[in-house]
Amino acid sequence: MSDLQNEPQPRGAKVKGRHPVDQLEAANRFIAAEAHQKMHDQRLWDLRKKRDAQMHLIPEWEELRELASEIKEHTLDHLADYLEEFERNATANGVHVHWAQDAEESNQIINDILKQHQAKTLVKSKSMLSEECHLRQSLEKSGVTVIETDLGERIQQLDNEDPSHVVVPAVHKTRTDVSKVFVKTLHAEQGNNDVHYLAETQRETTRPYILNADAGMTGGNYLVAETGAVVVCTNEGNADLSANTPPLHIVTVGIEKIIPKMEHLAVFIRLLSRSALGSPITQYTSYFRGPRKGGEMHVVLVDNSRSTRLASEKFRAGLKCIRCGACMNTCPVFRRSGGLSYGSTYAGPIGLILSPGYNAHKYRNLPFASSLNGSCTNVCPVKINLHEQIFAWRETLADEKELSLSKRILMTSLGKLFAHPKAYRTAVQTGDKVLSYLPHFIVYNQFNAWGRQRDLPKTPKETFHSWYAKNYINKGKGDE
C-alpha cells in the first residue's frame, strides 16, 4: 500500500473555548503528514488551474468581475432597502420570512418552527451559515435528528469534523480515510476504497432519511429582491431533494446574499462555479420562489455580526464574498496547512478577514497565516482586496493589544529600530558580519522560525545603502 493509504489523516486545530487558536501547531501536524499534505496541495492547485482555463475562455472575464463587484457594492450601500423588498415579495409568494440578529436567535427560530410542525428529522444541504451558527448541534440538543445530504458534508458529519473548505468540505481526506469512516458508521465493506462504491454507499444510506424526513433545509447562494426568490447552486441535486421531498422547507441565509434583480443573477452564476471548481456551471441551479404545493416554506435572514461589519469602512468588503473558495484554492498557506488548522468555520484568506470579526481574541493568530502575496485578491470573482484586508486586521489586532507577548516585544523593538535609520543600518551591517562567523547551532535554534525549514541566504558583502552611497552619492550622481 502507498504512504497515502497507510498514513493516518491529521486532525484539525485544538479549539479550547475562547482561547486563541494555535493555527501554527495544527498546520505543522498537517505538513508532517507528507502524503496528505502533498495530495491536498495538488487537489486544490488543480482547481486553481481549471479556474484559470475557464477564465481564459471568456474574453469579458475581467468585466464580469468588475460588474459583480459593483453590484455587490451598490447592494451593500442599500442593503436595508433590498432586504425589505425581498421580504415583501417573498411574503407575497407565500413564504414566511424571519429575521435573526445572531446565531442563538436564528437557531431558536428554526427550533420553534420544527416544534410547531412536530418535526423530529431534518435533512439539509450544505450551508456554511448553519456551520457558523452551530445549528446542527443546537437542533440535536432539542432531539432533532439532522442528516447532511451533501456527500462531503455527510463524510465530515460522520467523522465528527467541521468542513475544511467552503465548497469541497472533505478535500483533505483521501478515499482510504473516507472508507475507514464509512466502515465505522455505515457498515461499508472493509478495505473497499473505490470512489464509486463509497459514493453509492452514502447515497443508499442517506436516501431513506430524505424520503421520510419531516423537514428539509437549504442554504442560499443568492436572494433576489425583485422576485423574493432563493437560488441554490449544487452539483449533487441534494438541495432539490431536501427542499421538495419533505412538506416543510426552511432556508437559512445571511443578509449579505441579497442581489437586486434577476438580470444580476446571471453575472454571479457565470462567475461562481468557474471560480470554485473550474466548471462552466453547477449541475443544479435551483430557483425557489415559494412553497411546494401543500407545503410550507420559511426563510430565516441572519445578521450574526454582518451589520457590524457593514458599518466598518475598513472591513465591509468581506460581505461581498460569494463563498466560491477560489482564494483557498490559490493560497499557498491553505493548500499546505489544511483548512481544519484554522479552527474556524471559514478558513483560508476569506477566513482570515471574517473570523476575527466574530471573535478577535480567539482568532487573533489567523491574519498572520498569510504571506500577503496577493494571489487571493487576483482570483476573487467579486474583487475583494483580501491581502489588504488581512494586513488591516494585523494593524487592528495590534491596536487592540491582541498580539501575543512575544510578538508585542518583537514588534516594539523592531519599531524603535526602524524609526532610527542610523541605528538600523548599523544593526544590518553588524548582523551581516556576525552571521558569517557564527556556528550553525547558534543561528539555527528554536527562536529562528525561518531556519526551521530552510537555510538563511548568504549575507551580501555590502548593503544596498552603502553600495548606493559609494557609487552614486559620493560621486555626485544622487539625482540621476
TrEMBL record:
Gene3D superfamilies: Alpha-helical ferredoxin, NagB/RpiA/CoA transferase-like. PROSITE patterns: 4FE4S_FER_1, 4FE4S_FER_2. GO terms for biological process: lactate metabolic process. Residues 311-339 form the 4Fe-4S ferredoxin-type domain. Residues 1-20 are annotated as: Disordered. InterPro entries: 4Fe4S_Fe-S-bd, 4Fe4S_Fe_S_CS, FTHF_cligase-like_sf, Helical_ferredxn, LUD_dom, LutB/LldF, NagB/RpiA_transferase-like. It comes from the Bacteria. The keyword Isomerase does not apply. Keywords: 4Fe-4S, Electron transport, Iron, Iron-sulfur, Metal-binding, Repeat, Transport. One of its GO terms (molecular function) is metal ion binding. This is 4Fe-4S ferredoxin.
